[in-house]
Amino acid sequence: MPLTLEQPVRARLVTPGSPQLPIRPTLRYLAAEPFAVHIGFPAHVSADADGVTWTFARSLLEEGLDAAAGIGDVRIRPCGRSRTVVEFHAPHGMAAIRFGTASLRRFLQRSYAVVEPGREELGPELDHGLMSLLDGV
Fold it and tell me: Considering the entire predicted model, what is its pTM?
C-alpha cells in the first residue's frame, strides 16, 4: 500500500475579465496526514513567484464534489456536471481554480486506497499532546 499519492491534474485559473489560464497543480495525499489533502500550485501562478500549497480536509473535497461546501479559506462547489470550482481565500485576495470533476473523484478514490475513510488514525503525537494538555485529568 502506498504511503503517498501524487496526481498532477489539468485545471484552469479563473480570473474576472481575463482569459482562463491553464495550469498543472499536483494533488497530494499522505498517509501520515490522513485527514488532509494538499494542492500544490506551480510558481508561475503564485503571487510571489514561489510555488504554493494549500491544505484542507479530505472530507471537504468529498462534500464539495456534490454540493457547495466550505465556509473558510477553501470553498468547493460543483460547476455544471463535469467541473468543480475550488476557491482559495487569503488576505491578499481570492483565487478560483476550475478542475475536471472526474480528476478530483479519481484522486479521492485513490486516496481511499492509501487510508480508508473511517480508518484514519490521529497518531501518537496527538495522543501525547492531549495527555499533556489534560495533565492526567
Answer: 0.82
